[in-house]
Specification:
alpha/beta, RNA Cap, Translation Initiation Factor Eif4e, 6-stranded mixed β-sheet, 30% strand, protein biosynthesis, RNA-binding, translation regulation
Length: 149
């Protein structure tokens, strides 16, 4: 059953949606040894996540129709390895710096952050507020819990 986490801080929201776990293919790991100076070097080995995830962004528009809301929803990036997660996470605006009425979503690949998505049919939402100074920490810890499954 999908669930969602929504942060609201002075009208700013951030959401993490999770649907039931699904298996993904594990990428083959490769490493290289040896270098010109005789030292051993190990190439970065991709560490696959159990599931692929997608970061989404939206800006609330009052009185928007469902079609307008869907059109306003933007996919930022998908992540399927620990490295790609950190690459995206470290280069997007965190929830503590979002402009008014903007939201971040983090959801399984193949599921849109919409109640109308059939995979969210029996979903729910958890809403809670955090102190302004704790927003970035709470968001990061929740993302870690999601990708760590």
């Amino acid at each position: 059953m999908p669930s969602s986490l929504v942060f609201q801080q002075n009208g700013v929201g951030a959401m993490a949606l999770a649907s039931p776990p699904r298996a993904t293919d594990n990428a083959d790991s490769k490493s290289t040894a040896g270098s010109e100076n005789g030292s051993t070097a190990v190439a970065a080995v991709p560490i696959p996540l159990r599931n692929e995830w997608v970061f989404w962004h939206d800006k609330f528009v009052a009185n928007a129709t469902p079609a307008e809301y869907t059109e306003n929803l933007k996919e930022i990036a998908d992540v399927k390895t620990v490295q790609s997660f950190w690459s995206v996470y470290n280069n997007i605006t965190g929830p503590e710096r979002l402009t008014l009425r903007c939201s971040l979503h983090f959801i399984h690949k193949g599921v849109k952050p919409l109640w109308e998505d059939p995979k969210n049919e029996h979903g729910g939402a958890w809403n809670f507020r955090t102190a302004k100074g704790d927003t970035a920490f709470v968001w990061r810890e929740l993302l870690m819990a999601l990708i760590g499954e």
